[in-house]
Amino acid sequence: MAENETRDFFITGLRNAHAMENQALSIMKPQLERIENYPEVAQKLQQHIQETEGQIDRLEQILQDLGEDHSALKDWALSFAGGMAAMGHTMAGDEIIKNSLANFAFENYEIAAYKSLLTIADAGGYVAATSGLRANLAEEQTMAAWLDENLAQVTTRFLSLKEADVTAKI
Ligand code: MG
Ligand code: FE
Predict the structure, then answer these.
(1) Could you tell me which of 7, 117, 115, 108 has the C-alpha nearest to residue 59?
(2) DSSP per-residue string spanning 89-119
(3) From ligand 2's centre to the CA of 111, what distance in Å?
(4) Where are the domains of the chain?
(5) Least CB-packed of 24, 32, 95, 144 within 10 Å?
(6) Taking the model in full, what pTM does it have?
(7) Domain boundaries 3-163, corresponding CATH code
(8) What are the residues whose beta carbons fall under 8 Å from the beta carbon of 99, sequence distance 6 or more?
(9) Alpha helix locations (H) across the chain?
(10) Which ligand is nearest to the CA of 108?
(11) Phi and psi, residue 42, nearest 5°
(12) How remote is the CA of residue 3 from the centroid of ligand 2, in Å?
């Protein structure tokens, strides 16, 4: 593949990752606002929201270092993210379970995206971009592992709250 084609593909991938991270915020922020009975989930979401804001900064820095203006990109990414806000399963009684599954799926999607971007960065020789992409990847892997480990506990708590009829709030 020609050098400029690899570059175009890399830039497109970085822009998609930027949109993906804004989408992540639009999924996590409404969840955080609604959680009342799962404080450890709320705490982890709060932490990962902050991490995600840092991930967006890293992607913008990488794009800027490549000479790409991201002012137009921001608007595009945010409008894209708006479409995913409906993913909250707001009225369902098992919202916390559905959100846990969706979050696990999303983190693994992010992991795949960063692994692919790192492969493109290696192929194109974009050495300066790799530390930021690796940092983002590591945070997604940590979050995915936490969700994996916590799924049984959340489900058990959901069942016991259900038994106690504390179903009005997640
Ligand atoms: Mg992320
Ligand atoms: Fe994430």
Answers:
(1) 117
(2) -TT-TTHHHHHHHHHHHHHHHHHHHHHHHHH
(3) 8
(4) 3-163
(5) 32
(6) 0.87
(7) 1.20.1260.10
(8) 31, 88, 89, 170
(9) 3-34, 39-65, 71-82, 95-124, 127-163
(10) 2
(11) -60, -45
(12) 30
33-71 per-position pLDDT tens digit: 999 999 999 999 999 999 999 999 999 999 999 999 766
Structure tokens at 24: 């992540």
C-alpha of residue 160 to centroid of ligand 2, in Å: 28
Q: Which of 3, 54, 66, 4 is nearest to 24 (CA)?
A: 54
Indicate which ligand has the atom closest to the C-alpha of 52. 1
Burial class from Cβ neighbours inside 10 Å (0-12, 13-18, 19+) for residue 20 reads buried
Q: What pLDDT digit, counting tens, does each position of 72-130 carry?
A: 565 455 554 444 444 444 455 899 999 999 999 999 999 999 999 999 999 999 999 99
